[in-house]
Design brief:
By secondary structure, the protein is an alpha+beta fold. The chain contains 3 helices and 5 strands; from the N terminus they run E-H-H-E-E-H-E-E. Strands 1-2-3-5-4 form a 5-stranded antiparallel beta sheet, covered by helices on one side. Strand 2 and strand 3 form a beta hairpin.
Length: about 160
């Protein structure tokens, strides 16, 4: 379990994306709620059916992890034009990817899964449980940080007769 760390996104034709949306998230924990609202609104327009709740849960976990573990300390201010965390949602006909970009180069680390009563430390286990695959990769070029992504397979639309 949790082997996909440091794995690039599976090959997907980016030119075949049927829908895409993204939002910048400020460096405050209230941004998790904003990410959930953005995701709910976007997925409602895209009609992703039975995967709706799974995707919303995973987005919450990925954004929470980025804000807690990847954003510089609160005393370091980032400019409003360069928000520290960005959520991307991309939909293909039968797949959906949610990706969270953050400024840290550190790899995501799973918490101790032995204590099931703990209130934190299980985010990546939830991501692993609800997404069909997930991973992360460092950003290249002029972008700093990393992207942690989760892929969801969507049911094929029934053929029209």
């Amino acid at each position: 379990m949790l082997e996909p760390l440091r794995q690039g996104l599976p090959p997907l034709d980016l030119t075949a994306v049927s829908s895409a949306a993204s939002c910048a998230l400020p460096a405050r924990l209230e941004a998790v709620r904003e990410a959930r609202q953005f995701t709910r609104g976007t997925l409602g327009q895209w009609d992703v059916g039975e995967r709706f709740d799974d995707v919303c849960l995973v987005v919450s976990e990925l954004v929470t992890n980025a804000l807690r573990h990847a954003v510089p300390s609160p005393c370091i201010r980032t400019s409003e034009q360069d928000p520290p965390v960005r959520l991307h949602l991309m939909r293909w006909t039968t797949r959906l990817v949610c990706a969270v970009r953050d400024p840290s180069h550190d790899s995501p680390v799973a918490g101790d899964s032995e204590d099931f009563s703990a209130e934190s430390g299980r985010g990546l286990f939830l991501v692993d449980s609800f997404a069909d695959s997930w991973g992360w990769h460092p950003l290249a070029g002029t972008l700093n940080g990393k992207v942690v992504w989760a892929l969801f397979r969507l049911p094929s639309a029934p053929a029209c007769t």
